[in-house]
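lol forgot to send this yesterday, sorry. struct tokens for the thing we talked abt
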């Protein structure tokens, strides 16, 4: 079967019989395109919310953005997609938690620290950053101490 590509129709032949039909291979478990698209739109709304000064906008426009709902939806759907994508390997007993967390860290932490490097000079300039707040943020502990967290959005 050389030249077979994902999503291509496959003709199934049985010995001594004619073509019995075509079969399109099932997609690998782990992709739910519609949910992934909705998750992107929720993340886009959150990004847009952080780029606009909403205090100057009307109540109805702020309500339309529904950003706390967008954040909750983004995290909930992300957790569902991760569970869906890895449930088969967990059921087979082949799920490697260490590899999973390394892959998540390699994907998320560079962007997180880039944002911190960009925002920290601004926070230092207006006096919001202290040594304790900065270390909490660098070590990803700001959710454990929300009153002393650095906010840069």
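and heres what i got for the seq, position by position
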């Amino acid at each position: 079967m050389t030249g077979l590509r994902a999503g291509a129709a496959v003709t199934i032949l049985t010995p001594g019989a004619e073509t019995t039909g075509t079969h399109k291979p099932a997609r690998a478990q782990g992709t739910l395109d519609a949910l992934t698209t909705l998750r992107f739109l929720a993340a886009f709304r959150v990004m847009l919310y952080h780029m606009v000064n909403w205090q100057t906008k009307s109540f109805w426009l702020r309500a339309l953005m529904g950003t706390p709902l967008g954040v909750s939806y983004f995290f909930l759907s992300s957790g569902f997609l991760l569970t869906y994508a890895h449930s088969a390997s967990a059921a087979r007993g082949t799920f490697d938690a260490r590899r999973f967390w390394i892959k998540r860290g390699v994907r998320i932490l560079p962007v997180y620290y880039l944002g911190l490097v960009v925002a920290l000079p601004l926070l230092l300039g207006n006096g919001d950053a202290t040594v304790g707040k900065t270390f909490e943020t660098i070590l990803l502990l700001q959710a454990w101490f929300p009153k002393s967290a650095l906010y840069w959005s």
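The helical segments are 33-51, 59-65, 67-92, 97-125, 131-138. anyway ping me if u want another try
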